[in-house]
Design a protein that fits this description.
Radius of gyration: 25 Å
Strand content: 5-15%
Largest sheet: 5 strands, mixed
Strand order of the largest sheet: 3-2-1-4-5
Distance between the termini: 57 Å
Structural class: alpha/beta
Number of domains: 3
Number of strands: 7
Order of helices and strands: EEEHEHEHHHHHHHEEHHHH
Length: about 325
């Protein structure tokens, strides 16, 4: 007998449903989010289970790792690519679990990539760094806005970071000075945390052979190269450069029929961290590399800054795919 299991994972509980090869229900029950409880439901069918489907929610690590550790063939379902029949009158956790199991049985389950457990901590640490960078930028912009609004003075990021209490009190003798110093204090703290994370990453991580070529590309330094390596994982999981570009959110999400736009897809489908990495690389490339700057300026002349930087980031993403896949150095002549 063939058995297929669908697990509808939530924050506090998981609904487990199992079917056989003829789509007959074998088991359905809700369990608390405890690995031993879920394993107790699966174990009687273990020798017949052909696959266990877990939806890729925010909290899947513990469940997928636990099931794989017990030898179960686990599939991570891609929720953005799964659609149920819209004419259904009722959808609940039981039906969702059975739907996942049935998609696996039919061989049409859209799956996501199960990132290797041992490499996940460093990837998540780099993601934390990016979150802190965003917070630091928000506070720098806040201080800039206060200077512009209250004093009509323009300051750059380095000047904001060097502000001290005496200088702020001179410029802002009223309560707004406390707001400025609150942001300045947080900027300094965030700066130290970001630097500490970067030090840990550089001391711990070494670029794999297929990713070393990224450092030959314009705009890509150590942190961005490491971010790309950790987010990509295995480049062979992308059959074509179009698949990779789409995953990096470099492809338009418009639906076109007969030359007209009929709708829009999920523009957030893909990896936001890779999208950020290539946008950052494009920003650096247009500043310090002549060919990249020339391409950006030509694009900007016919469109706008946002479209131009996205176009340049798309070019860098496509070039990096071949650098990683083929293990070659960057060739400027082929990119531009």
């Amino acid at each position: 007998m063939e058995v297929y299991a669908g697990l509808d994972l939530h924050s506090t509980n998981t609904y487990v449903a199992m079917i056989d090869g003829e789509n007959r229900m074998l088991y359905k029950h809700r369990h608390r989010n405890d690995l031993s409880s879920i394993l107790s439901a699966l174990d009687p069918f273990k020798k017949d289970i052909k696959g266990v489907v877990v939806e890729s929610t925010y909290n899947w690590y513990w469940l997928v790792d636990g099931l794989m550790g017990q030898g179960y063939p686990v599939h991570l379902a891609n929720p953005s690519a799964i659609r149920q029949y819209e004419g259904l009158k009722q959808v609940d956790d039981k039906r969702s679990s059975l739907w996942l199991a049935n998609l696996l049985r039919l061989g049409i389950l859209p799956t996501g990539y199960i990132y290797p457990k041992e490499e996940r901590p460093l990837r998540d640490l780099l993601r934390k760094r990016l979150q802190l960078v965003h917070h630091r930028t928000a506070h720098i912009l806040s201080v800039k806005n206060i200077f512009a609004r209250s004093l009509s003075i323009g300051v750059n990021s380095e000047q904001v970071k060097k502000l001290d209490d005496s200088r702020v009190k001179t410029l802002f003798p009223n309560e707004i000075g406390h707001a400025v110093m609150a942001s300045v204090g947080l900027i300094g703290h965030l700066e130290r945390e970001i630097t500490g994370i970067e030090r840990i990453i550089k001391e711990t991580l070494t670029l794999k052979r297929e990713f070393t070529g990224l450092l030959t590309m314009p705009g890509i330094g150590d942190i961005i190269a490491m971010t790309i390596m950790l987010e990509v994982g295995n480049i062979s999981r992308f059959p074509t450069v179009q698949d990779y570009s789409s995953y990096c959110r470099c492809v338009k999400s418009t639906h076109i029929s007969n030359g007209r736009v009929t709708g829009h897809g999920n523009r957030k489908n893909g990896n936001k961290y890779l999208s950020w990495a290539y946008i950052e690389a494009a920003q650096f490339a247009k500043r310090y590399h002549e060919s990249a700057r020339s391409y950006y300026e030509k694009k900007m002349a016919t469109t706008n800054k946002i479209v131009a930087i996205k176009a340049l980031s798309h070019k860098l993403a496509r070039a990096s795919y071949f650098v990683m896949r083929d293990g070659v150095a960057y060739d400027q002549a082929r990119l531009f």
